[in-house]
Design a protein that fits this description.
By secondary structure, the protein is an alpha+beta fold. The protein has 8 helices and 19 strands. Strand 1, helix 1 and strand 2 form a beta-alpha-beta unit.
Amino acid sequence: MRKIAIIGCGINGIGCAIALAESGYDVHIFDKKKPFSETSAKSSKLLHGGIRYLENGHLNLVRESLQERAAWVKQMPDHTKINRFFIPVYQNLSRNIFILFAGVKLYEFLAGKFSLGKSKFHGRKNTLQLNKSLRSEGLIGSVSYVDVQMDDEAISSQLLAKAERMGVKIIDNTEVTNFDLAGKVETDSHSIKYDFIVNACGPWVKASLDKNKINTKYEIEHVRGSHIIVNKKISNPLVLQNPSDKRIIFMLPIKEGTLIGTTEIKHDLAKPIECSKAEQKYLIDNANNFIQEPLDAGNVISNYSGVRALVSQGEKNLSSINRDSAIELNGKLINVFGGKWTSGLSLGKKVANLIQN
């Protein structure tokens, strides 16, 4: 039986492990810490097509992600929640309401038979009836679409248990100190030869290649995304358009209160991955443009930050970088760049197909 090593046990790594085990390989997956303890645990807790990617023309990515979103709901019905997301439109604060309605309808259209619900137009009165936390001054109305919130901790546990049932050996709290193009993996205590290595260690993929003097054709931007959790509740998920930089911020109802995120800041991996005071203020100020009871730092229960490795083609605006993954084969080494929760399992199938071919 051919042996495969996977470095990194986040959503990309476990997606690869499950797909490779299904294909009959002997799979070992290594993680320096605990599985799902880094980037995969620091997301916005959404399984989505990426409605904001439409503006940059990434239609194929959105279409594929919407299909995968439906697959998650089917596989994990107890840990996914289909919700209606509202985009409120205000005078002098928002994009044109008719353009936004066209956007949510395109989102629904791209889902095709995998659609989870209709996109809608809402007048001012109906918007306020459904979203009592919104301020009424200057409100024109809203548009809405359907997407999915998830319990990422529960899903992570299910995926890890599934991988172990399939015979995947999960080796946590173990750092891979070296690897090469011939399939050799070294830890502090072992040196093992594999038929293939899958480098799926998220934002640290490029650093691990540099350490082992292995080249890649891809340019990577490391982007920190921070979230805050506040102690106020809202009725439905809100999608807010920052008037200053036109970025999209989510306000999502969760058990503890409301999750607000995310930021996009270039990040140096040598520095701590944490939410700065400036990022917290940015998120609070953005929310306060739209809600009637203003938030301040005293409402913040907690915060968290994660770093994503985005495959860059020299874009000046971080928001315009394509969120799709890239897979690179070099000898017996397969590098996985980028990706996101929604596409984690399908990415694993792509890696398995690459090895089989």
